[in-house]
């Protein structure tokens, strides 16, 4: 029998055996997920699914990270995962990694230094309704909206949130009647962003309740309508569709930026939501902002964030401010030695190229797939008539393929099926925002389907 070295005590052996057992159990769990829900939503009901845009990514991350650690600096790819030796192209979620190239080229311009004694207080600006709003962040938000022309900021209060997701919940809290015995109905026209139903209902709040497709909404009394424009998943410009009095509107304008859609006029709403996740691609910073007309609504939204997270990371706000500043500089100095092209020129051309390639591939599919057609419109930012290039492709499988998500999964392409958006399962949503290699692989797989 092999002799155990003297520095190994019984305690060491016990710890070693425990570690081996834990790693074996983890492996079994991950292997099970690979067989089951990891690569699809077969076990996730559309209405009950929680935080749908990130859930699949988390599970994929778990699976891919079982043998290597996840570091924030590493370019963790959740777009490709192994399945019996072959890589799956994962375009189920809208992770905006395609912007990495631009930011890498920009280099040190966005680097900031945060010292040990910075950002220590809870408070940022006691003069603002949103007392945790960093003034520099607010300044750059207003500056960029002015340059892009996509939102009216005059007479608006800026409320910052941990992503626009937190601000959506804050808006629900602020707009729900305080004294009512019944939760207010929350509606959005289908196909709607797949996270809205679960975000609205996951806490079983007595204040608000998801009531589904706004097109079929017939209830009496107050309601909240969510308008996502351009829309996730189908990319169309949206307006309110409930034709009743007593409604409050939340405009989710995450994609109202010049790389996705022509900027027709500054949004002039009571409550609009924006996020760096989709405008600049910095989803990991977790910063969003609301432009709110009514000070009382801004106050209640601020209260929600205070009760929820006692403010929003100052470090993240400072970083977001720097990124917005560089985007604004790139627009003002486009063509200079500092900025060959503006961020929006770069991203517009990339989206244009991707959509062109996708339309070509789809047109050669012999009618298996089809895509929405968009009307061109004048873009006040680019000063010309342009086609929309949405962040997602709302792809339809031909009649006879009832479940497009499963069909594509069979060809090693992961997408999100129509039912998650309150629509038919003959549709899927495909992210257009992933890295070049993943997107190329997607086109290759799609073109091989006959
Ligand atoms: C329409 C829409 N709103 C909000 C969000 C969430 O944004 P954030 O990352 O700022 O929470 C997303 C993310 O996919 C989205 O598509």
TrEMBL record:
Domain Alliinase C-terminal, first and last residues per copy: 89-449
GO molecular function: carbon-sulfur lyase activity; transaminase activity
An individual GO BP term: amino acid metabolic process
Cofactor: pyridoxal 5'-phosphate
Signal peptide positions (record): 1-19
Pfam families the UniProt entry points to: Alliinase_C (PF04864)
InterPro entries assigned to the protein according to its UniProt record, in alphabetical order: Alliinase_C, Alliinase_N_sf, Ethylene_sulfur-biosynth, PyrdxlP-dep_Trfase, PyrdxlP-dep_Trfase_major, PyrdxlP-dep_Trfase_small
Keywords from the named record: Aminotransferase, Pyridoxal phosphate, Signal, Transferase
Assembly and interaction partners: Homodimer.
Family (UniProt): Belongs to the alliinase family.
Protein name as it appears in the record: Alliinase C-terminal domain-containing protein
Organism, scientific name: Cannabis sativa
